[in-house]
């Protein structure tokens, strides 16, 4: 289920400015559920008045990020996607619980696709509050060319 928080975010708490909208989706890390996450990304970009190319790029980038993470997720892991909408950009963080030592290769075709579709992309490894290993892909997409 998606949750929306439209409360004001103080500028010092970044990654955004006051008035940013945050939508979070949490689902099982299964390939069959990725189209739902992709549809949310597309809808948020359309509502933020992104141009059609930027909407398509964001949708495909979210699809690639989620598919990559689902392939590395521990059995039974949730897939958590957070979308921060900041008017002219959307920041996305997709995370799964991954097995110890799981790494995303940055020389893969999928990684190159992400770098092409998103304006910025990064991968983070760490642990969750429960001490489980986590793998996160962060990306951000601007509303249109030259922004």
In short:
With 147 residues, the protein is α+β, with helices and mostly antiparallel strands. Helix content is 30%, strand content 31%. It has helices at residues 34-47, 52-72, 109-117; strands at 3-5, 21-28, 78-85, 89-97, 120-127, 133-142.
| Strand arrangement, major sheet | 1-2-3-4-6-5
Give the amount of beta strand, in percent.
25-35%
Class from helix and strand fractions = alpha+beta
**What is the element string, with H for helices and E for strands?**
EEHHEEHEE
pLDDT below 50 for ≥5 consecutive residues: which ranges? Answer: 1-17
Number of helices: 3
Please tell me how large the radius of gyration is: 15 Å
Q: Let me know the average pLDDT.
A: 85
Q: How many beta-strand elements? A: 6
The span between the termini is: 32 Å
Oligomer: single chain
The geometry reads as: globular
Helix-residue proportion: 25-40%
Largest sheet: 6 strands, antiparallel
How would you describe the overall organization of this protein?
With 147 residues, the protein is an alpha+beta fold. The protein contains three helices and six strands. It has a six-stranded antiparallel sheet with strand order 1-2-3-4-6-5, with helices on one face. A hairpin with a 3-residue loop joins strand 3 (78-85) and strand 4. Helix 2 runs antiparallel to helix 3 (109-117). The chain is globular and about 40 Å long. The chain starts with a strand and ends in a 5-residue tail after the last strand. The model is unreliable at 1-17 (pLDDT under 50).
């Amino acid at each position: 289920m998606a949750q929306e928080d439209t409360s004001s975010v103080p500028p010092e708490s970044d990654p955004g400015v006051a008035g940013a909208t945050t939508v979070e989706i949490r689902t099982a890390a299964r390939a069959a559920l990725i189209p739902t996450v992709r549809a949310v990304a597309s809808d948020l970009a359309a509502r933020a008045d992104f141009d059609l190319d930027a909407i398509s790029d964001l949708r495909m980038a979210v699809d690639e990020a989620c598919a990559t993470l689902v392939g590395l997720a521990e059995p039974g892991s949730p897939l958590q996607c957070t979308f921060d909408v900041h008017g002219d950009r959307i920041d996305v963080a997709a995370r799964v619980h991954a097995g110890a030592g799981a790494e995303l290769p940055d020389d893969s075709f999928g990684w190159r696709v992400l770098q092409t579709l998103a304006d910025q992309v990064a991968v983070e490894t760490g642990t969750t509050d429960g001490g489980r290993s986590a793998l996160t892909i962060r990306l951000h997409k601007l509303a249109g060319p030259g922004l």
